[in-house]
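Practice problem: predict the structure.
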Amino acid sequence: METRINFVEWLANDVSLNIMMRLNDPADVVRAGSVSRLWRQFVVSNGVSKQLCVGRFQQLSRIARITELDLSAAEAKDVGSSNSEWETLKRDHEVYASLLQAIKTSMSCRNDCIGYAVSASSTDNYPDESIVNTLIPVDIYLNRPSYWSSKGHSDPNAPETLIYKLKADLCVITQVCMQPFEAYFQPGKPIYSAKSVRFRLGYPKSSKDDSDILKMPQQQPADDKFIWTYTSEEFPMTQVKCFQRFDLPEPVLCIGGYMQIQLLGRVQRQEMDDLFYICVSHVKVVGRPLSPAFDVEVLEPSQEFVLKYNRDGVRSMLQSLSNGDHQDSNMPPTLSEELVVDAGLVEFFLQNHQPAIEHMDWDDDDDDEMDEVGIF
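Answer:
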């Protein structure tokens, strides 16, 4: 038999790790861990899935620890608190591989992630022109036009902001859609769009702010109560009455569950008072909440995060994937450690993802045989 080498065994650790970090698909991390016990030990002990996850989403570098929700005890327990170092590494591999796959599969989801409207930097006629109207999917509601309007301003560069709470504290966002308002009851049917928009994602500065936000008047600004961990590029708007779609260059992980829409610049004067206004009919934030499989908790004062992991939530996603109905479920399909240690689930995963390798069941004598298979 032709002699072939296993690069994980023969190359220096940092060189092998550099090769593994070239994996583009989180599914490949699971495949790599399925080749042999040696490869599995390498992938797990070097935290390949964690490095890939943090490399693509820098916000995750602030995760201080992982806790697993024990549904039977209705409480969270720290991962690795009573386990060996190897067990903790395996758990980290499971959690980060699952999270990375959940994020990837969310790229094709078209769900609206907005939970409720929080506040607007100004409102012209509250509550008739409240930010809440932007979540009503019709142009006329209760025999009145449905839209949010800013106060008038003489400066066409004066900005406005809208803030929304998303459906979960951990969401993947891929697109934001907005429709400017056409004042069909005014001469010429003017459209009060902004010149451009920008999006920010983050969380309240403190848990106290989180509870206070719910009590704030919606027509008053609340921008100073948040820490924004992501800011998008600036997107131009057009004066057209339609849903304008703004695609984020890459899926964005929102940690904390709040979005701010910055409306930059004004285009249309109102004939009545000669002031500039911005008016919005509808807003939709496209993506997928990652709960109940994942959740986060912000630690004060460090502003680091606790990542909460629900094993049963991940299993339900796997089940929805096997039934072929994951597009309609509450969560995207993702990976579990069982894809590695349970032969049946490994085969299911590989069959459904067109693997480049054939899965082989492990026993005590498999290691040498599998290491000699010339795959690379």
